[in-house]
Amino acid sequence: MSRKKILWLCSWYPSRQAPFNGDFIQRHAKAAALYNDIHVIHLTNDFIGPQEEAYQEIITGENITEQILYFKKKASVTGKLTNQLRWLALYKQTIRNYIIQNGKPDLVHVHIPIKAGLLGLWIEKIYKIPFLLTEHWGIYNTVIENGYLSKSFTFKQITNRVFKKTSRFLAVSKYLAYGVNKYVCQKEFTLIPNTVNTDLFYYNKEANNRFRFIHVSNMVSLKNPEGIMRSFKIFADTNENAVLIMIGDANEGLKKFAREINIPSDRILFLGEILYDDVAIEMQKADCLILFSTIENSPCVIGEA
Question: At a CB cut-off of 8 Å and minimum separation 6, what does 77 contact?
Fold first, then answer.
């Protein structure tokens, strides 16, 4: 099978100010690059850069190019609308430039309909190139706050149109796909879970002095880190040989909570945000992964564990 030239348009993707934003999409892109030539385009408001004009970073790897564009967010009263229009105009121009330099892609792959789906609709209309859609956002339920049903009319209209116009709906979990079919529109789907880099994540049992539980997440309330710690405290009271490793954005509030419920400091370890390679090493040292989220789609950590 000949390699295809595929343009990825990503609503979420890692950038300088948000290195973990959509990192699972980045890993998917690198996996797809094993079989096809992938060019990723992602635009973001630059909250930390000094430049007033838009600028970009281009990262090239084996069969993959990641093009990240930054522009300064306007803070005026009309800035919200101006930012949206500027984002759309810059994205369109970047796609035009890509096609001028590389020719038309064989396929467009949109990740998350809001807002990159707008470009999927545009490129299909202007260039007659079909687009695939992968949805990752777990909003199609009534469990989380600010779910799909609470979104604006415009949000729902755009989302509905993107789903209806995509040539193929790809979902990272059946639960997410069923939610889309219930709340947005009826659409057949193909299940493609999140990817795992097995060059990093593989079984390598190490002997431990203590039984090591591990939790890896961004530690937001949806991941229920407090519930994990409460449960571990009950378990640890009668199992002196257990330790809990917490990897992710361990803010002071979580550390304070651990002290308040009297988890001994030598029984819980907050490693903070660490390199992806180091996560793999910590998982190899661990005996058991804990995931206790309120809701999930296709957690990378399950496959990695």
Answer: none
